[in-house]
Amino acid sequence: MKGKILLVAGLLFACFILLAPVSHAEIEWSKTEPVQKVTIDGVEYGWKKLPLENKCAIVHIKVKKTKKTIRIPSSITGYEVAYLGCHDKKNNLWGEDYTNYPEMGNMVEARANTIVIPDSVEKMGEGTFSMVRGLKKVVLSDSLESLPKDVFSNCVNLRHVVLGEDTRHIGANAFWETPELEKIDVQKGNLYFTVMSGYLLGNGESEIVLAIPNVKEGEIPNTVSKIKPLAFWNTSRSKIQIPETVTNIYPQGLSTKKTVEVSVSDKNSVYGTDQNSIYKKETGCLVGNVVKDGVMDVHSWKVTVVDGLISTIGGKPSVIRYPITLVRLKKHWTQCASVVEFRTLIPPSIVEENDDCFASIYVYPEVASIQYEDVLEKADALVNPKNDQVAKKQLKKYNVWELVDQITDYYESCFDSSKK
């Protein structure tokens, strides 16, 4: 009897293994398994057998003559196509190194406007379709649960994507640099994503996964509470209005390639906006700042902390100017621009990634240093604050804020004259 139970259990386990979907951990490329080639409807496919029974992976595509549509086969010589992606993780399906995409010299020609992926495909590799020029539409498999990192990055002509019924996760930078993308359709059976007002929403319409780049208008729905990283990077919108419902803007959630106008609802209890800065009301932490002509001027006195990956609204800055109120700054933000200028009366506490504090080197125009000499003598203890809490106590002790109104006009005039 015991033997029969063990036999049944073993058979059930074997069935589970055979029927389970392909996961990243299960894709183990055999060094001895050769890449075979087959031509179907004028398209050459390089494919390999997978360890799973009767399943294979397409690892390379070669198109000799331009076709309007490529329909990837669901099976090859009796093996079900379960995976798309090169076994060299750096390459896309056309054999190009997609990790060098900033050079844009590695763009490849799809020789097809549309690619249709069969429902047999359960997984794709990172960067599978990255940098494919000419690709305008992709219809994804209903069995595909996850869009991997960089899967369509730098597909500069991609305009239309159809998400399958079972797609429930979209990886980082999946739609990075897809400025022409104007339409995302979600199959009716999909319970994880929806499109509303030009936004791809996830998690029960509570998260903005992507502001569809080539949609120029559309208010953020009031169901949204979170904005995911780089959701607005390629946006063509001229204005972004953050509603009162948004309570979590992820690092770089508002980063954009071009300068746009960003505002926050007066009813929002978490975030505020002041002089081109978006900040957390409770902590004074900078969340995002507009970049104009390469300059990120953080002018708001409501900003006291620059911590983590903030959103640069208008591309990467070459010059960053910090406000007079700054008391705490992540080290990264002293090194991410060619010129970093401080307006602070006292050196802010610069913090390493592990949150250990150390004193900064105070930087300001030489012409202003004479004016501040007596102020700094009175606030000598502020030169090397042990941490930001100590710095705040010392600020109160020396009533530095009372001096701000008196010297700001003078400081700004000195600053401007030093730049002429």
Main attributes of the structure:
elongated, 420 residues, 6-stranded mixed sheet, 15% helix
Protein model, in words:
With 420 residues, the chain is of the alpha/beta class. The protein has 4 helices and 33 strands. The protein starts with a helix and ends with a helix.
Radius of gyration from the alpha-carbon trace, in angstroms: 27 Å
For the terminal residues, how far apart are their CA atoms? 93 Å
Portion of residues within helices: 10-25%
| Strand segment tally | 33
* Major beta sheet summary: 6 strands, mixed
Mean pLDDT across all residues, rounded?
78
Give the helix/strand class: alpha/beta
The general outline is elongated
Low-confidence stretches are 4-26, 101-107, 356-388, 397-411
Total helices: the number is: 4
Amount of beta strand: 25-35%
